[in-house]
UniProtKB/TrEMBL annotation:
InterPro entries: PbH1, Pectin_lyas_fold, Pectin_lyase_fold/virulence. This is Right-handed parallel beta-helix repeat-containing protein. The keyword Signal applies. Keywords: Signal. The keyword Transport does not apply. It comes from the Bacteria. Residues 1-29 form the signal peptide. It comes from Streptomyces roseoviridis. Residues 477-513 are annotated as: Disordered.
Length: 513
């Protein structure tokens, strides 16, 4: 897999390998806490650190031992935790208020916030406060196996979990997940005067403010987020002038959130992968003003969005509501690859480099499958060069609405559309080696005809539901596409893609079926 410079690949590979190693112990933690909790407590004990137990169902406060636990968030907040310590909440209980534990861990001995006992995950209920859980200017925390909620009768700047850096220093080492975050009454209106409240509202928010404040090594994984005003995950780790690093956002499920699904901003080489986002903009606290998108990046250097599924965005914002967006201020290369997108009212992709500070990132959009999105848009004031190749765009229920950056190379894609569709033909847009069914060819170049998909239009609710877009052995798109160097080395399904032999057109490069 090729994502840019070799150093970036190695760094991304280390983060991904570490995440996959964790996945085996965290993926099942939502239904039963004992295994993950016991592991966390055991890890802490091996460092000769202490564990503080909290059971908010107890009528009296104890000393924090397992047999005599604390019984309130205020008592948990009153202690300062040391490297290797664990703060554990009793399963099947609810604690009310903002949990803001003090202290920092180290890289070899992080502090763990988790659950203990059997039964449902313990609930931390912010009860309308700004945050249910808050970590500020701290380092090396593991947070998982909790249920966070923060409902209220009115909307305001609210989160389930907030991690902030405000002191002009670099803070690092945050492993976030698995968590359930549900019903957070965050702000859903992005227009003035509530714009900043919206930006700071979501299920999980990280932020860095103040000169030279940054966050690093932020791993957000295996969380289930729903009904959170403002959005699902907003991972901001720096600023335009100084960026955070080590951001990995993966294996999260975002459903019915009133704002952006996932955004990573001001990061060096962030990776967003294996996430599932549906119904973005809806939920108990639905989006109410301005713009939002499914998964997007802003102010990053060399961001990658890959192997995600985004579907069912039915609420149209002012101009966006796309599945994916390379927004303003990105530098280097913004890569969107191997994603599945379906039935999003704002379309598949937005180029918005002209929406703010122009970063001029090169945009590589490859090996994605878009079903019934029917729209791509671009803000032409940007300076991005788009290379759009080996994608599938399938839209048979309404005409395609496609706007591309002024400098675009469009090759090896398969376009299925309606006869009244018109693809852009501006002087800076090159059309090479595409297949067009239904939609008229924008130039003489390309194949006009049926691409012979196995079973198109049958995409479902996951990355793995797109097998209908593999090609039959009778397809006219086999083995006659343009050879592209630096093509990532594989197709949507993981089949190899050569840099010397002609590939198929579209997202599939395996044997004809």
């Amino acid at each position: 897999m090729t994502f840019g410079a070799s150093g970036r690949r190695r760094a991304a590979g280390r983060r991904i390998a570490a995440a996959l190693a964790l996945a085996g112990t965290t993926a099942l933690a939502f239904t039963s806490a004992p295994t993950a909790s016991a592991t966390a407590v055991a890890d802490a004990s091996t460092t000769a650190a202490s564990t503080t137990y909290v059971d908010c169902s107890r009528p009296t406060a104890g000393d924090g031992s397992q047999t005599s636990p604390l019984n309130s968030i205020a008592q948990a907040n009153a202690r300062t935790y040391a490297p290797g310590d664990t703060l554990a909440f009793a399963s099947g209980t609810t604690c009310t208020g903002t949990l803001a534990p003090k202290g920092s861990g180290t890289a070899t001995a992080p502090i763990t916030l988790t659950s203990y006992g059997t039964g449902a995950l313990p609930v931390i209920d912010g009860n309308g406060a700004a945050d249910a859980v808050l970590l500020s200017n701290q380092d090396h925390w593991r947070v998982g196996n909790l249920h966070l909620t923060n409902p209220a009768a009115t909307l305001a700047r609210r989160t389930g979990l907030r991690i902030t850096a405000t002191d002009g220093r670099a803070h690092r080492g945050f492993d976030i997940g698995p968590l359930i975050v549900d019903r957070v009454a965050g702000q859903t209106d992005k227009t003035s005067p509530t714009t900043e409240d919206f930006v700071q509202s979501a299920g999980i928010v990280t932020g860095a403010s103040g000169t030279n404040s940054t966050l690093h090594d932020v791993h957000v994984h295996h969380n289930r987020i729903s009904n959170t005003g403002g959005g699902g995950l907003k991972i901001r780790v720096g600023a335009m002038a100084v960026k955070g690093s080590g951001v990995l956002i993966e294996h999260n499920t975002i459903k019915d959130v009133g704002g952006d699904g996932i955004i990573a901003s001001y990061a060096d080489a962030p990776m967003i992968q294996y996430n599932n986002a549906s119904g973005v903009g809806n939920g108990v606290y639905p989006f109410s003003g301005g713009n939002f998108a499914g998964i997007w990046v802003l102010g990053d250097h060399n961001p990658t969005i890959q192997k995600n599924a985004v579907y069912g965005i039915t609420r149209m914002s002012v101009a966006d509501s796309q599945a994916f967006d390379c927004d303003w201020g990105n530098t280097g290369t913004c890569t969107v690859q191997y994603n599945f997108s379906r039935d999003n009212i704002g379309g598949f992709f937005l180029d918005c480099d002209g929406c703010g500070t122009i970063g001029g990132a090169r945009q590589i959009i490859r090996f994605n499958i878009s079903e019934n999105d029917c729209r791509m848009s671009s803000v032409s004031a940007g300076r991005s060069a788009l290379h759009l190749y080996n994608n599938v765009f399938y839209c048979t229920d309404r005409k395609l609405d496609i706007t591309l950056p002024d400098e675009s190379v469009v090759e090896n894609n398969i376009w299925v559309g309606t006869p009244d569709s018109r693809l852009p033909t501006a002087p800076g847009v090159q059309w090479l080696w595409n297949v067009f069914q239904g939609v008229p060819r924008p130039t003489a170049n390309g194949i006009a005809g049926d691409p012979r998909f196995v079973n198109p239009g049958t995409g479902g609710d996951s990355l793995h539901s797109a097998d209908g877009y593999k090609l039959r052995s009778t397809s006219p798109a086999l083995d006659n596409g343009s050879v592209i160097s630096g093509n990532g080395g594989r197709d949507y399904w993981g089949n190899p893609v050569s840099t010397t032999t002609k590939p198929h057109r579209g997202a599939y490069n395996g044997p004809g079926l």
